[in-house]
Amino acid sequence: MMTNFENFESKCSNSNEIKEDRVLDLRGYQCPMTFVYAKVALEEMESNSILKVILDFRSAFTNVPQSIMKQELGEVLSEFELNNEKTIWIKKT
User: Fold this and answer.
1) Beta strands in 5-92 (DSSP E)
2) pLDDT of 4 above 70
3) Pairing, β 22-25 against β 50-55
4) Is residue 44 in some structural domain?
5) Residue 2 in domain
6) Residues spanned by the domain of 37
7) PANTHER family, per this entry (predicted)?
8) Is residue 72 in a domain?
């Protein structure tokens, strides 16, 4: 029987190859602040840096990556959802 961590590892193998430069844990935050914090973090980072964003607010699961792409702040490299949390890896453009 697989543990949650092993299950996460097996489903998320390509994201294991992504080495983030910064982690932004937004668990407990709601929209629109989830996007605002992600945007500010990306603006502070250098081009081609990787931001890992952790979310637990369901609306933010789609709003954050869509807004990042719409405002051309970065490229969503990978997304992974497990146990009501979503992790997104974003490469700053």
Assistant:
1) 22-25, 50-55, 74-82, 85-92
2) no
3) parallel
4) yes
5) no
6) 24-92
7) SSL1707 PROTEIN, SULFUR CARRIER PROTEIN YEDF-RELATED
8) yes
Q: Domain count of the chain?
A: 1
Residue 17 three-state SS: coil
pLDDT exceeds cutoff 70 at 5:
no
Sequence-separated (6 or more) residues with CB below 8 Å from residue 34: 26, 55, 57, 60, 63, 64
Tokens 């869509």, residue located: 66
Show the tokens assigned to 6: 């092993």
Tell how strand 50-55 and strand 85-92 pair up.
antiparallel
pLDDT at 15: 59
pLDDT digit string, tens, across residues 78-93: 999 999 999 999 999 9
Look-up: residue for tokens 């933010």? 60
CATH code, 74: 3.30.110.40
